[in-house]
Design brief:
- There is one protein chain.
- The chain is α/β, with parallel strands linked by helices.
- The protein has a single domain, classed as 3-Layer(aba) Sandwich (Rossmann fold).
- The protein is built from seven helices and 13 strands.
- The strands form two sheets. Strands 2-1-3-4-13-12-11-8-9 form a nine-stranded mixed sheet.
- The two termini are 52 Å apart.
- The relative contact order is 0.12.
Length: 325
């Protein structure tokens, strides 16, 4: 250490410490680690700081603070979710109680929600701008969704998803966007308004071994494992979800992924119950069963787990955030 004046003078020609006289009140602080033939660090105003790119000294009573996470990037903005609600128009077809359940599920996850009406969707360009996801619940896909939502309204949904948004449909909200549709074995074509075609595969229903509309019953749904609910539980796992005539999915295009299957004994066991596929820059997720419902009056003896809603919200978040996660 350069702590003695005599040693300092000896090394002046070899080590450019630049110290002045001890009596000089403007003398630079003593160089703490001046070794032979090595220049002292530049005067940074901190005598204990070497020119290492790190202003915090290693050997002091006040080491650098540990990373507490306070300097990390701020958390992402909460998702903004639009919920389709046609309760104010002619022939309201969205199940009102179900919309409340959907809203409760999203808000419990910290998402922001706003309801979008039929008139707004049909008449206001840019009505979906700024939303991360559009949610359609159960009810009557025909004719309320298929015929009362105009061509312009359907085009706005298509554009929203194609440009990066997420569409998540439950039961009737899933049937609504199917291209090839069968119900009770009867084909239902574009003349009934099923022409939005976000899912160019086959939707069939109901799953008779569980129930058929208007009857509600718990369905056993198996989740084999997918990044959409990664970390939610250890796959494969089963959950009981309410079912009331929703679709199963067949003849799926190659880009479709199965998130869950029906697992009650019967002819539909193993068929897809929840699916996802990309659509342009966005993504759709379609549910046959109802993850948002915890209790219905027609099945008072059955009460579902709150975890169902948590899983639903998790999948909505995955679909909406896409590559950001």
């Amino acid at each position: 250490m350069c702590t003695h004046r005599s040693l300092l003078l000896t090394l002046l020609t070899l080590c450019a410490c630049g110290h002045k006289d001890d009596d000089d009140p403007q003398r630079r602080p003593e160089c703490p680690d001046c070794e032979e033939c090595e220049e002292c660090p530049e005067d940074t105003g901190d005598p204990c700081s070497e020119d290492s790119g790190d202003p915090c000294p290693e050997d002091t009573d006040n080491p650098c603070p540990e990373d507490t996470g306070d300097s990390a990037e701020p958390p992402p903005e909460p998702l903004l979710v639009a919920i389709y609600d046609d309760g104010e128009g002619d022939f309201p077809s969205a199940w009102a109680e179900g919309l409340d359940y959907i809203e409760e599920s999203m808000q419990a996850a910290g998402y922001l929600t706003e309801r979008i009406g039929r008139d707004e969707l049909n008449s206001e360009p840019g009505i979906l701008w700024g939303f991360d996801a559009l949610l359609f619940g159960g009810g009557f896909a025909y004719p309320g969704y298929t015929l009362y939502i105009s061509g312009a309204g359907k085009a706005r949904i298509q554009e929203f998803v194609y440009s990066g948004g997420a569409y998540v449909g439950i039961c009737a909200g899933a049937y609504f966007v199917c291209d090839d549709l069968y119900y009770e074995g009867i084909p239902i074509g574009d003349e009934s308004g099923y022409n939005i075609d976000l899912y160019p595969g086959t939707c069939g229903g109901p799953v008779h071994e569980v129930s058929s509309y208007p009857n509600w019953a718990p369905a056993t749904i198996e989740f084999p494992g997918h990044e959409a609910y990664d970390g939610f539980d250890t796959p494969p796992f089963e959950m009981q979800l309410y079912y009331a005539g929703g679709p199963y999915f067949e003849d799926m295009p190659a880009d479709t992924e199965v998130l869950a299957t029906y697992n009650d004994d019967g002819p539909h066991q193993g068929l897809a119950a929840v699916i996802t596929r990309p659509y342009g820059e966005g993504r759709i997720v379609l549910w046959g069963p109802h993850p948002e419902v915890l209790q219905v009056d027609t099945a008072p003896h059955v009460s579902m787990e709150v975890a169902n809603r948590e899983l639903y919200a998790t999948v909505v978040g995955w679909a909406a955030r896409g590559d950001e996660e």
